[in-house]
Amino acid sequence: xxxxxxxxxxxxxxxxxxxxxxxxxxxxxxxxxxxxxxxxxxxxxxxxxxxxxxxxxxxxxxxxxxxxxxxxxxxxxxxxxxxxxxxxxxxxxxxxxxxxxxxxxxxxxxxxxxxxxxxxxxxxxxxxxxxxxxxxxxxxxxxxxxxxxxxxxxxxxxxxxxxxxxxxxxxxxxxxxxxxxxxxxxxxxxxxxxxxxxxxxxxxxxxxxxxxxxxxxxxxxxxxxxxxxxxxxxxxxxxxxxxxxxxxxxxxxxxxxxxxxxxxxxxxxxxxxxxxxxxxxxxxxxxxxxxxxxxxxxxxxxxxxxxxxxxxxxxxxxxxxxxxxxxxxxxxxxxxxxxxxxxxxxxxxxxxxxxxxxxxxxxxxxxxxxxxxxxxxxxxxxxxxxxxxxxxxxxxxxxxxxxxxxxxxxxxx
Length: 413
Fold this sequence. Notes:
seven-stranded mixed β-sheet; 20 strands; alpha+beta; FAD/NAD(P)-binding domain; 14 helices
């Protein structure tokens, strides 16, 4: 059985859905093929015993240019983290908040032992430099920059400041605590946190792709439809069907795109494990990310998601997200018992009563984006394009950006 479409998009993650949205706006019909049972790609949310579990700890940074351009924030009913973090230090938590948004915490932030006074003055200069730079242009990401760690050292920040704050906070974003990620991406993310807030939709992160998919014409997305291969302008499905397309867009994950292109996969990926627990009360109700600077610990950071968005948990319950990694062995999952052992030292024996919900091991969470990384050409050949965060830099913004750029390339011919 063979059918024909102007554009076929393979993958209904954020890159593919964004591409489809802008094509539809331009009056170009397209068909989106998705192997999974729902849209979203890596951005999925499961309902387990009344709790909303995102498949891995994820947040929406409200300042992202592409999400601001496309998403309806009020409809998502966003709950927001406080700006800052609670850092595990000397058997307690020290809270460091953005004085612009939490001015009552300015003195505590100044006194916090996460660096010397000289470090904090250098941090002010770093903020000024980054805020004065347009970090969203393609030229910015094509600049040759050092690793994040080397960049921070070049700014004169001490090892103590880096290890206590930058490594646990940005290491959690990069999914690697060596801070080998390109400083260009660090400066981009830093600017986004400066301009916006970390947020979660009321019904989970999957609400984001679902909102974009809902704007497409009925029948635009086919779920449970796996693509076996492509040959020229023909797209072959596992069920034996074939679809002819004037334009084909690969909007899958990096491994699947390489496979469909017949290219060897030599990419390196950063992994993460996220484990969820339910409790009768919140162990730390300040809506702050709880960071662990101890690099030899299995626990990287903790978030009480129900404090940020109460609808993530049933009434009277708390939902706790724990991001972990075996030190030196990111390919291994951390056991529930090991997590409880660490957190018992943080919160006491109540941790033993927490209900284990589920663990997500995300093997290919992010393509490693080291110093010197460059964007990938989106046009593979005549009639074939690719988009996704792996073609630019590892973020939701990049997935949506490249999806839009491919749509614009198709529209303009």
